Amino acid sequence: MTDITVTKVDKIGVLPTDKQLGFGQIFTDHMFVMDYETGKGWHSPRIVPYGEFAFVPATIVFHYGQAIFEGMKAFRGSNNQIAVFRTKHYLNRFNRSAGHLCIPPIDVDEVQAGLFKLLDLEKDWVPSTPGTSLYIRPFIISTDGFIGVKVASTYKLFIILSPVGAYYAHGFNPVSIKVEDKYVRATKGGLGQAKTPANYAMSLPAQAEAYKEGFDQVLWLDAVHREYVEEVGTMNIFFKINGEIITPELNGSILGGITRQTVLELARNWGFKTTERQISIVEVYEAHAKGELEEVFGTGTAAVISPVGELSWKGRKMVINHNQTGEFSQRLFDYVTGVQNGIVPDEFGWMDIVSN
Ligand SMILES: *Cc1c(COP(=O)(O)O)cnc(C)c1O
């Protein structure tokens, strides 16, 4: 493993108060950078001041989008320790996304070492109020200065850090979701299972229309039948029907969320029946009509658990659990965030401690 060089900034920034924190607008003083070149591999891991980078206009990523990213979090525990939630799970997924876009894989241990060194340097930026965290955004872009379509031969990996506020600063707020019937997100054989900017760019028109109609987000259905539930686009989706925890199986067009996996593991550990399978939107409406649909919630790193209070499909609106957060959603949220904040013992070894 190559040594990581460190270039420090002259003037250190100040962490805003926890109440001032939003999402993704403030960045810490330093970032981690590494380069790739065919023949040389990934090289020159370094920590440098956060700041601008110059790229020629022909830089290939601007034209053809060969890029991937991750989103993970570090927390300040009750004993002031900085810890990252399930680091390797995110970095291994980073490599799976890389594979889908012909991006050369990273050495997960080397990147984790770079991340931890960066976090140690930036530890004063990790907020402490429960619910706040330091959001970690690793990403890779292709950097050849060439506007022909091809697999690039040069890349840059960055890791930037952003202190973020509590997602539920004013308590749980169940979301209202439009079941999308005009646009589709991804199909098998496409990029749906990769964390890549293209999946977000394509979601913008649907999101904008749903927002105009008064919904918070969209729920995507499968691209072929327009019938089977896929995911929310930034979150995976779960249904609690008659006591059973059901989520769509990872079928090749859904992003395999780390929070999704965490929820499945927890639910099984707690003795719930969990099922990963195809579930149609018709089945969800039928379960609701029979009074068997107990809870619906999204899972993702940003919100952890996001209760769904309303679903609307082709103008048919259904209210779930009286638009209230369900008992199971609340239990999941309290447990996972409790472990992250160091309040609940980490019995499954989810937290990777960075420094004391
Ligand atoms: C990141 C992401 C999720 C949630 O995954 P987590 O690992 O739980 O954060 C769900 N869907 C898409 C499309 C995503 O990009």
User: Considering DSSP H and I runs of 4 or more, what fraction of the residues is helical?
Assistant: 10-25%
Strand content: 25-35%
Specify the structural class: alpha+beta
Bound molecules: pyridoxal-5'-phosphate
Order of helices and strands: EEEHEEEHHEEEHHEEEHEHEEEHE
Low-confidence stretches: none
CATH superfamily of the largest domain: Aminotransferase class 4, branched-chain amino acid transferase, N-terminal domain
CATH architecture level-2 label of the largest domain: 2-Layer Sandwich
In total, the number of strands is 17
- The total number of structural domains is 2
State the distance separating the first and last CA atoms. 24 Å
- CATH topology call of the largest domain: D-amino Acid Aminotransferase, Chain A, domain 1
